[in-house]
Structure formats: C-alpha cells, structure tokens
Amino acid sequence: MKKQLLLLTLSCCLLSSGNVLAQSAYPCAVVKFVSPYPPGGTTDILARMLAPGLAKQLGTNVVVENKGGASSNIGTEFVANSASDGCTLLLGNNTGIVINQNLYKLRINPSKDLAAVAEVASVPLVLYVNASVPANTVGELVELIKNNPGKYSYASGGSGSPQHLMAEMLKLEKQLDMTHIPYRGQGPAMADVIAGQVPIAFETTTTISAQMASGRIRALATTGLVRPKNFPNIPTMKELGYSSFVVENWYGIFVAAKTPSVLIARLNKAFNTVMKESEVAASLNKMGSSDVAGTPEQFTQFINKEIPYWESLVKRTGATVD
C-alpha cells in the first residue's frame, strides 16, 4: 500500500512538472518583435513596453526590431512572409492592416497573409501645432489657413496613416489649401513639427504629453469620443462640431498566416497577461488607451468592421500616396 502511494505521489509530481514545462516552453530561442516604423513613435514605444513582459510569459528572449518604411508596408510584408512558427511577431496598426490596401499596390493581402493575435492599445489622436503658429483653437487654425492659401503644410507618419486622413478630412470639410508632408514614421514627423519645419500635425496621445509640457507645441483638440483622462482640458473635435472626427489609432499583434492555433492562443494569453501587469497597465492608461483585451476571434471581427470604414474614408477624402 505504501509503495502504491509512493508511486502515485511520484506520478502526480512528474505530471505536474510536465504541465509546468508545457506551459513555459515556447518553440523559439528568440522571438522577433517587429515594429514597422522607426524609433520614437507610438508603435515603437508600445513594442518596447510590452517586450519584457512577453519574454517573461513565454520564457524566451524577445528582441524588438524596427523595420520602417513605405508607411509600415516593409515591416508588415516581412512578417507576412516569415515562417508560420510564432517566432516573428508584428505590432501592426490600422494603417498597415486596413488602410494601406486602399492606397498602395501591396504584394501581400494583410487579411489573408497575417493572423490576428491580440489587440493591445487604442488611442485617440491630437491635432496640434508648433508654438509659433498664431492659433489657440481649431477655429482659429482653420481661419489662419483659409486666409493664407498654400502657405501652411502638415506632417504625418506616412501616406495612409490615420493622422494623414484626419488632416485630409479637415481640408475637405473646411475647403483648406494645405500641403501634406509625409515622413517614415510619427517620430520623425513630430520632431520636425517641434523644430518648426512643419507647423501642423495630428499625433497620438501616447507621444505628445512630454512635448506639450515643454511648451514647444500646442494641442488644440483630440479625436476621441470623450476627452482622454490625461488631456481633460483639451476639447474633442466632436465637441467643436466636427462629428466625423471620432477616430482612434489601434495597435495589435499579428503573425504569419497558418501559424498553429495553439501558438496564437498562447501568444494571446501572454499579451493579455502583460497588459494587466501594474506598470504596463499604468502606462497604457497614461497614453489614453482603451481596455482592448480580448480573444484573437474578437480582434479579427473588429478588423473586419474597420476595413469598410477606412476604405470609405480614403475614397471620401481623395487621399493619395504623396
């Protein structure tokens, strides 16, 4: 009897140990976490914020790689063409996943060549100007541009970005003559607005806080449905009568299509856990991000609803690749 109890106890211990190993083992010595933009923008910030926790959850090394260019198309294509083994992840956003297919001749189909894993953030945009621009409200900015046709330009992180399309929407609704200056990412775009090279831009709430405090730029309005907690004194575009300007920039994790569902589920669980860690959760809240944790299926359904919205917006504004 004692021998049987000993064998049973030993078996339970081995089974328990095997379960732990099954939970912790991940089939990659290194996970490449691709940000399809240069350093300094929201995507890069999010990738570097999530990477340490992801490494802990997966029990492996996670390396952030910046593969910027072509409004995120280069990095997005790189991941779509990678092996379907869960070792190469994309931190994509609405630009590369749903908007660019309406503006570029892509060599991939994001809907077919990528599999959605988890949404990780969704943040409103801020319409802001260099401090030298003599406008303190959206109304004053519109009048300034109208009275100086062709004089003012605006920056964006690339053709097709929500920042680009929101500015084109403003041009359309108010019949403004304003030139688009595209950059390889929001980081470089913001740097030139701060320096006064370009006077106007839309940017996410993620990266603009520190620059607002410096006094080098001035925020005029946000594009959220309500005022972000971190910008309570800045009105929404909707409050100001711009009902079409309720937009958020969303970010999510993707892998190459045909990646095994068990790996996608493992990654989804890992990211949802990381987003709930106190330090990460506090940072996401400070960015003004909504709570977006969910399943791969929910994220896929959300993306499918986004596709026609952005297709319609591109057609309405007549936006092109500059």
UniProtKB/TrEMBL annotation:
Signal peptide: 1-22
UniProt entry keywords in alphabetical sequence: Receptor, Signal
Family named by the database record: Belongs to the UPF0065 (bug) family.
Name of the protein in question: Tricarboxylate-binding receptor
